[in-house]
Amino acid sequence: METGALHPIIRAVTISKGEKEQGMRLRVLLFAVMLSVAVSGLFAIVGPKTAEAIPAFSRQTEKSCSTCHNAIPKLNQVGQNFRTNGFRFPEDKEWQEIQDLKHVPLSAKLEVAGELNKADGSAQSSLLKIEDFKVHAATPLGKNGKFSGYAIATFVEKSVALGQAYGQINDLIGEVGHGLLNLKVGTFDIALPFLSHTQRVIKQRYFAQEALGILGARNRGTIGDVNEATEFYNTAVELNGQVVGQEAGDITHRYAVGVYQPQGLNDQNRLGDPGFYATYGITFLENFTLGAIYKRDVVNSTLDPFTPNDKKGVNKWGVAGEAKLGPFITTVGYFRSDGLPNTAGVFPGSDTNRGLQNYMAEALFIPNRLWVLGARFDHIDQELAQSSSRTTVMGRYNITPSVYCQAEWRVTDSGGIGVVPAPDSLNGRVYLVAPF
Amino acid sequence: MSAIRQKENMKIISVGLFVLFALILSNSGASLAAERKTPSAPEDILKMKNPVTLTPEVLQEAATIYKDKCIKCHGTNGNGKGSGTKGMDVKPRDYTDKSVMEKIPDGQLFWITLNGSDPETTEMEGYKKKLTEEQVWKLVHYIRSFAP
Question: Distance between CA atoms of A242 and A182, rounded to whole angstroms?
């Protein structure tokens, strides 16, 4: 019914109700913004001045965050070396001081998020929430740092989820402290050394993760909003390593092969159908990196009459490159996956056996240690079917070296491809991230 | 608004955002090359001469400290191109460059090693908590040995 057809008194009440609701929404939004600013200010005053992305590492090694991160949590070359090498620096003996555990290897991270969502066919919504609270423990152990442990527990929406949790036996061959060959067992991020969902500066997920399951595990979306849910990782056994040249200009190789427990399978006999993966990255001329990843996933396939035991092997692969030129870091990637038949809740419908391909381009601009600007274009298409793309721009201000606030604007042109078929949407996000 | 119209708007917004970002980058990138801003030691420290007598034993001890603490960034040969500097915009000083090293007094090397360099552009942190002053003076001898 049109408002104009109402009795003047009813119309006045209706308008007043509408205005009231709008006023209330504005007040809530204003309150959210003011609260964010107040909390940011508080952290700026009392927050840690020298704490880092994973402050436990910083406290143990007495290094700043920028030693290992271009922008939190993205790792630079030194950070990638440190991680692969079981949280030890390969070229000197700094890491030996960690073994004394003079600092408890524990960190925590609080993330507050404000959301604004506008999607086709839905009313605009906004929200302020504690995104998550993470407790993180990681350290090398033993006289020579022979063993390294890493674990993250995430508290989100009244649930506790175990994130990455693994142990690594270091230096199976080669000189102690160089990480030429290591054995890693547990639940962790299977991705490229320089491109993974745990290293996203732009918090919007990659299609290559959530839809293709190449960079990390596919999103199961069982906790919280399906697009913002806690990350899920693969459980795997991996041999990894690196050859790091002694000088800045020397070539660096990083490699990993492993078997993992596919997430797309039902609960029966997961170990009987293991997945396989291999990754390789090469860094040359100091600032240029190329990488490739291959993953053989296994999924349930009752739709496919040609596969035995209702299972299907799914080949996935991708290549990516990264260049760091002064304050700019640009990354491009191409990822491809066989179709994922009958993966309930992921690609419903009868045309799900078609391959998927994904193109991604991302640029970060880091002019100084206070500001980070970034943009990403992520496009996915299904053979002979729909395509979908996301454009994201972001800006970050570092309140302290580790505490930052970040804003993202996401535009999704959805063709029905994604974790669930989604309408076109505009999404705003504001984060306040405080590790300590 | 029709679905087609909304879709067109989405595309326009996407392209617009990307163009805007590209313009910001292209306009600001050229003038943002990082510059070294090394802080200077206080006058009295700058005038100090190395109080540790140079002997082979001193150099030997300093070489061990250098290997443990410095080699990752300053490099085996002291040229400032260690593996820890990959991708670093401002590299450590090249200790093998005699023309540069002649202009840096012992007191400045000592003070920077203890207190660190410019935190905005470099990763050189102070070693006050990890090394004694005597060890740092020994390191100064070792650093000088790269460009005798």
Answer: 9
